[in-house]
Amino acid sequence: MIVESDGYVELIQYLTEHLEMFEHPSDGAERASFTVREQLEDSLSDKIMRVSQQHDVSQELRFDIVREADAILYDLEEVLASVLNQQPTPSQQTFIEEFTGLVKNLLDARISEAGG
Fold first, then answer.
1. SS3 for 36-58, per residue?
2. I want to staple 111 with a disulfide (CB 3.0 to 4.6 A). Which of 23, 66, 85, 116 is the partner?
3. pLDDT in tens, 12-42
4. What highest taxon heads this organism's lineage (predicted)?
5. Where do the domains of the chain lie?
């Protein structure tokens, strides 16, 4: 669906370009009460549910979307492995929300192209 698309490759490149934000967070920045992993899971789940609600998709396509989300989460966990159990700073939280929003946009576009 999207994991093997050029848009997704560009999105992963965008993530790697911003890794410094996760590797060297601002000293003294306040931290969330949850982990980077928890925010990734929650935010991606929220975006996937929105995709399913906003499009009239078949059960089969819904399963495809969930498989895509699993693959995306796996990729994110691979790239961010060293910081998954840390509490994110506000700027990291914002970036995660933005990133998962871009994932949703890719899914929306793909579903629209497919006529779903």
1. HHHHHHHHHHHHHHHHHHHCCCC
2. 116
3. 999 999 999 998 766 677 899 999 999 999 9
4. Bacteria
5. 6-114
